[in-house]
């Protein structure tokens, strides 16, 4: 398993703390990789918890129901003309 630091803060710490002794540098790298993974896991957990909490507090948006109209048809005597439109749609052609 290759140990690699992902955050620039930990890379800077490793660069300043390493001493040139291979076993000590390797031990330091292992410690920093472990600390970094714990820090990243904690950050992810906190961000997810906050996002879930925010999502749960949101109210669902008010959805207006569509407008259903029915009037006698001009072309057929038996079937009425039925229309289903969005509530924000204003039909200027029907206004007389």
Name a few traits of the molecule.
mainly alpha, 10% strand, rod-shaped, 2 strands, single chain, 96 residues
Q: What features would you describe in this structure?
A:
This protein has a domain at 8-57. A two-stranded antiparallel ribbon has the order 1-2. The protein starts with 7 loop residues before the first helix and ends in an 11-residue tail after the last strand. The chain has 96 residues and is mainly alpha-helical. The protein has helices at 8-17, 22-57, and strands spanning 67-71, 81-85.
In short:
With 96 residues, this protein is mainly alpha-helical. Helices cover 48% and strands 10% of the residues.
* Biggest pleated sheet: 2 strands, antiparallel
List SSEs in N-to-C order. Answer: HHEE
**Number of E-state strands:** 2
Please state how the strands of the largest beta sheet are arranged side by side. Answer: 1-2
Question: What structural class do you assign from the helix and strand content?
Answer: mainly alpha
Whole-number mean pLDDT: 85
Q: Which range does the strand content fall in?
A: 5-15%
What general outline do the C-alpha atoms trace? rod-shaped
- Alpha-carbon distance between the termini? 79 Å
- The helical percent reads 40-55%
Give me the secondary-structure topology:
Layout: H1 8-17, H2 22-57, E1 67-71, E2 81-85
Antiparallel strand pairs: 1-2
Helix pairs in contact: 1-2
């Amino acid at each position: 398993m290759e140990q690699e630091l992902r955050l620039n803060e930990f890379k800077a710490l490793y660069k300043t703390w390493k001493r040139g002794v291979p076993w000590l540098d390797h031990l330091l790298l292992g410690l920093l990789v472990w600390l970094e993974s714990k820090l990243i896991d904690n950050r992810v957990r906190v961000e997810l918890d906050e996002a879930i909490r925010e999502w749960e507090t949101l109210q669902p948006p008010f959805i207006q129901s569509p407008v259903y109209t029915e009037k006698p048809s001009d072309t057929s005597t038996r079937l009425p003309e039925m229309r289903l439109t969005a509530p924000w749609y204003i039909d200027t052609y029907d206004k007389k």
